[in-house]
Design a protein that fits this description.
mainly alpha
Length: 490
C-alpha cells in the first residue's frame, strides 16, 4: 500500500530528508565547477607557464568582476516578478546549470605555446563566461535556503547538508584530479627522473586531461542540479523576497550601506573571507609544495582531504550541538581548535626528515579540520539568520541582495587571496618558466612556510568574524525569532 504523503498547514509536502538530500545535490552541482578554481591557478602557472605577476593581475581583475557580478545578479533576481513554471529561483538555477555544462572547461583551453596576448585573451574570456554561468546558478541557490523552510532547526539541517554536498563535490575532484593530471617522469632507462636540487622525482602537469576532466564535471554538475530542481520544495512565497520597498530602484550604495549595518552578515562574511583568504589561497602553494618539496603532487588531493573529513564527525550531532550551545558559540570554539591546528603546522617546516615532516603537517591539518567542522556545518545557516536579522531590524526581507553581497566579499577574497599568494610565491623564488622541475630547494622550502602561515591566518580571521563581530548568540537569536513570529501572526 502506497504511503500517504504528509502535508503541512499550507498544503506543501512536509520538510524532510528529500529536501536535505536535494539541497545537498545543489551544492554538489556548484562544486563540480567551483572545485576547479584551485586548479585554474595551477593550470595557468605550471602548464601554461604564465609569469606569476601577470597571472596575479589577471586573476585579481576577473575576480573583481566576479565579485561585482554577484550583487548585479542578486538584484536582478530580487526585482524579477515574472511568473515561471518552475518558480523564479529554480528557473535561474536551471539557466546557470545549462551554461555550466561546458563553461567550466572554457578556462582550461590547453594552448601552452600560444603568444602571451593570446593566453591573456583566453584566460579572461574563458573565466568571464564560466563566472557568469556559475553566478546565475549559485546566487539563487544560496538564497533559496531561507525559502525552503522558516524553522531555524531545519535551516541548520539544510546548511549542514549543503556542506555535505559541498564537501563531496569538492572531495571527488580534489582527490581524483591530482591522480589523473600529474605524471611522474622517468629517464630513458626507466629510472625515476630526479630534480638534483630537491632530490625528489619530477612530476609534470597534463593540461589536456584537465580540459577533459572539466567537461565531465560539467555533466555531473548538471545532473545534480536537475535532481535538486525536481525534488526540493519551496514553502515560502518567493514574492515576499523584496529588495526594494515602495517601488524604489535598486541602489548598490544603499544596499552596501544596509549590509554593513547587518552585524551578523558582516561577521559571517569576515569568517568566510578568512576561510578563502587562507585555505583556498593555499591551494596553489600547497600543490607546488607537494610537487617540489615532497615529490607527491599526484597525492596532494588525498592529503588535503584528510583535513576536511573530520567535518563528518559533527554531521549526526549538529542539531543537538546547535540546540544546546548555539551556532555562534559552537563555531567560535571550533575556530580556537583551528588556530591550534595552524600552530602545529608551523612546526612541520622545521623537521629535516620529510616523512616525519609530512606526518606533522597532516596532524595539524586534521586538528584544523576538526575545528572547522561545526562552522562548516552551520555556515550557511548563519547567513540565513543574518537575512532574518535584516528583516528584524529594517522590516525588509532582502534574501537575494544580502546573500549576493555576502558572495561579493567571498569572491573578492577568492580573488585577492590567490593573487597575493602568487606574488608571494614569486617573491619567495618560484620561477614559472622553470615549471616544477627546475625550482630550487630554497623555493620548495619557502612554500612550506607559506602554506602553514596561510592556514593559521585563516583560523585567526574566522575567530575575529565569529567571536568579535557576529552578534547573534543563542539568546539573541531566540528573541529575534520570537519577535519575527509575532509580527507574522499579527
Amino acid at each position: 500500500m502506497k504511503k500517504e504523503r504528509q502535508l503541512d498547514a499550507n498544503g506543501k509536502r512536509k520538510f524532510g530528508m528529500l529536501d536535505k538530500v536535494a539541497y545537498a545535490a545543489g551544492d554538489f552541482g556548484c562544486n563540480m565547477s567551483f572545485a576547479l578554481k584551485g586548479t585554474v591557478q595551477t593550470f595557468w602557472l605550471v602548464y601554461m607557464m604564465m609569469e606569476t605577476g601577470l597571472l596575479s593581475i589577471l586573476l585579481l581583475l576577473v575576480q573583481i568582476w566576479d565579485a561585482i557580478n554577484d550583487p548585479m545578479i542578486g538584484s536582478l533576481i530580487d526585482a524579477d516578478r515574472r511568473k515561471y513554471k518552475m518558480g523564479k529561483f529554480k528557473t535561474y538555477i536551471f539557466i546557470g546549470a545549462c551554461g555550466l555544462l561546458v563553461a567550466g572547461a572554457a578556462v582550461f583551453l590547453p594552448f601552452p605555446n600560444a603568444d602571451t596576448w593570446v593566453k591573456v585573451a583566453l584566460f579572461i574570456g574563458g573565466y568571464v563566461v564560466w563566472d557568469a554561468c556559475y553566478t546565475i546558478a549559485n546566487v539563487p541557490y544560496g538564497s533559496m535556503l531561507s525559502l525552503v523552510t522558516e524553522d531555524p532547526g531545519e535551516r541548520a539541517q539544510l546548511s549542514t547538508w549543503r556542506s555535505v554536498g559541498s564537501m563531496v563535490g569538492g572531495m571527488i575532484p580534489g582527490i581524483i584530479l591530482p591522480m589523473l593530471i600529474w605524471r611522474k617522469e622517468v629517464n630513458a632507462d626507466g629510472t625515476p627522473k630526479i630534480n638534483p636540487e630537491t632530490g625528489v622525482q619530477v612530476e609534470t602537469l597534463l593540461g589536456d586531461r584537465v580540459f577533459i576532466a572539466a567537461l565531465i564535471m560539467g555533466v555531473l554538475g548538471f545532473i545534480a542540479f536537475m535532481f535538486m530542481i525536481r525534488k526540493i520544495t519551496i514553502r515560502v512565497d518567493e514574492n515576499t523576497v523584496k529588495t526594494n520597498e515602495g517601488g524604489e530602484k535598486f541602489n548598490v550604495f544603499k544596499a552596501f550601506g544596509n549590509f554593513m549595518k547587518n552585524r551578523p552578515a558582516v561577521g559571517a562574511t569576515v569568517a568566510a573571507m578568512g576561510m578563502f583568504l587562507g585555505m583556498q589561497s593555499a591551494t596553489t602553494a600547497n600543490t607546488i609544495m607537494f610537487a617540489t618539496y615532497f615529490g607527491k603532487a599526484s597525492l596532494s588531493g588525498i592529503v588535503m582531504m584528510v583535513g576536511f573529513l573530520p567535518m563528518f564527525i559533527f554531521m549526526p550531532f549538529i542539531k543537538k550541538i546547535v540546540n544546546k550551545f548555539g551556532k555562534k558559540e559552537a563555531s567560535v570554539f571550533g575556530t580556537l581548535v583551528s588556530i591550534a591546528g595552524g600552530l602545529i603546522m608551523l612546526v612541520f617546516p622545521m623537521i629535516p626528515n620529510k616523512n616525519v615532516s609530512l606526518i606533522i603537517y597532516m596532524a595539524g591539518l586534521v586538528v584544523f579540520g576538526i575545528g572547522m567542522g561545526v562552522y562548516t556545518c552551520v555556515s550557511w545557516a548563519l547567513m540565513a539568520d543574518a537575512i532574518d536579522y535584516n528583516e528584524w531590524k529594517t522590516g525588509k526581507r532582502e534574501e537575494g541582495t544580502v546573500y549576493s553581497l555576502h558572495s561579493f566579499f567571498r569572491k573578492l577574497a577568492q580573488g585577492v587571496g590567490p593573487s597575493v599568494v602568487l606574488l608571494l610565491m614569486g617573491a619567495l623564488g618560484y620561477v614559472s618558466k622553470l615549471g616544477t622541475e627546475g625550482q630550487s630547494l630554497a623555493t620548495a622550502y619557502n612554500m612550506c612556510w607559506l602554506v602553514a602561515a596561510l592556514y593559521l591566518f585563516s583560523a585567526v580571521m574566522q575567530f575575529v568574524g565569529l567571536a568579535v563581530i557576529y552578534n547573534l548568540d543563542k539568546k539573541t537569536l531566540a528573541k529575534m525569532n520570537d519577535e519575527l513570529a509575532a509580527r507574522k501572526n499579527s
